[in-house]
């Protein structure tokens, strides 16, 4: 058997693969498909560039390049750009409100504990999350109250009228959400109940608060609430706002919880009943632990909404972050720096809200893996 | 040895606290009693408090003279008008800002939502930046920004920014020409209304005809022609009975034309821009919710791009878009109450603000205000339920 000779027309050597045409790979291809695919697309790109040139370039120039960063009085603001001196000169007030300067360490400790707890809960795979969550919801509010308000353990009392700034904003949002959560759970359970009277009471309660604007709720809390309680009880302005916010928020929370409860298959409850569990143990041991996990993105979204809505307390005369900056703008020493003030508040709110919304989107993706229908 | 359980158990009636039906009844009665108890406590406290403060209850105050002026009113209002009139003025102003806000927010939101899905990278990223910036900043801050930082920084009337000597913008507001209807303009309006009705009839007829013969006239263009062309023809025939009154600088201020107060402008811009950011996200997710296979199938059926969009994608996307969209509209209506922070005379600002402070009738005023918003919410959710029932997929 002889080995056939390779015909001469077949090359024995492999030809190296040629590289792809330069216009189908790399930057140029990306530019072609994403920015210059056809005349209309090119027109859009030019339009977008014009918009950037018109809006974003001058804003950056004003806020960063031409800005004045250092100094203590408005005389230090000489340039064309933003005067961030206004912010740095009043930063303490924007964060702590009228809290006595020598006591602000107490606020710092509360901030630190809160940040640590939230970080613990937010990072996946941390141990004893359940305990930490209970501590955050049940223990931390009391520690925070004792530290912020004082009056025991030898701490000096700082009345709520001295609270303000970012600290007050956080207090309003966190208390609002923590107090609204248990109420929301109860309301949602009531709304899904078989008992007609319980169900209708819960539906009316939820729909009432969801149907009115928060401003009218705050107005009601500040004007009507003092009429509702016996004459000798004197409710603090902050407490009144908190009651209003909590009632308002609990209705929204109830809808989030209801969504979570509805996502748990009926078989779970039925299995619990078959095991002889009563309603409360069935809820507490089987349904809620599963539902709460699903509700976290919804709760975070509600928290974002509430966090932005806390700025409304300005209207009933509390000095949250926005209100205190607004008040600072009226200071004759710093007239004319409203854009800087608003930009600062906007940046703080934006950083909080944007990171929370990104976190909630991340959680949604994380939680969706096992539960997606398709 | 017999096991005791093998015998049939004796019929023992469970005690009433073990009977679910009775237990539910008792629980509900207790809850009802609790709710009524709290309400009764509140009412009795309130009555005592009101008595000790010397406030009379009831709605008689609505007939008293208000005695304060209102910045902007859609009806005739003067300081001699009653508190009841302030309610109407505030309500109309709320409805006005809500209606215009809904329109502007929808337009901006749809444009931004589609831009977010644009194949052009820059356009899509710019839309994303817009959405992420404006929906993560409190609305109140945005209102303040537009009002105090932008509109309050405009030049005085003498240095107004102007567009073609007809539209002027200055620190006192926006001045636009006012249309003045001459004799016969009502005929044009009547023809316009008739044309709308006629085009509706035409579209109906066209559908019937398509169902019977399979042929279809370009309904969109023809009805547009009927609605715009016919009234325009009548308008020209009647001798153009419409003149414009231009705003003119007289002394220190503008006279004539329509004045849009800066409070209104700031609130309108802020509400539309804020809500539009949410609407853009809704539109984006609605369009993305239509499976890609749908587009491919319509390509395979050789539908044109615009037909694919009009007949396949949009109807399915709308089903996803409309429910959250209505709740955004509701939010916008409720958020319009932030007007009170900059003094635009909406319901909360005028009625729950000034009127409440002057009369001290907190309960009546807040109840009336809340009732208005509740009614609007209820109407909108009724519409939404109706719409959902109509649009729901008919499962086969």
TrEMBL record, chain A:
A GO CC annotation given for this chain: ATP-binding cassette (ABC) transporter complex
The UniProt record lists the keyword Repressor: no
Subcellular location: Cell inner membrane; Cell membrane
Annotated TM spans: 35-56, 103-123, 130-151, 163-187, 208-229, 283-304, 311-329, 335-356
SUPFAM superfamilies documented for this protein: MetI-like (SSF161098)
Keywords: Amino-acid transport, Cell membrane, Membrane, Transmembrane, Transmembrane helix, Transport
Membrane topology field: Multi-pass membrane protein
Primary location group: membrane
Example of a GO biological process term: amino acid transport
ABC transmembrane type-1 domain residues: 166-360
GO MF assignments: transmembrane transporter activity
PROSITE patterns membership: ABC_TM1
Keyword Transmembrane helix annotated: yes
Similarity field: Belongs to the binding-protein-dependent transport system permease family. HisMQ subfamily.
NCBIfam families: HEQRo_perm_3TM
The protein's name in its UniProt record: Amino acid ABC transporter permease
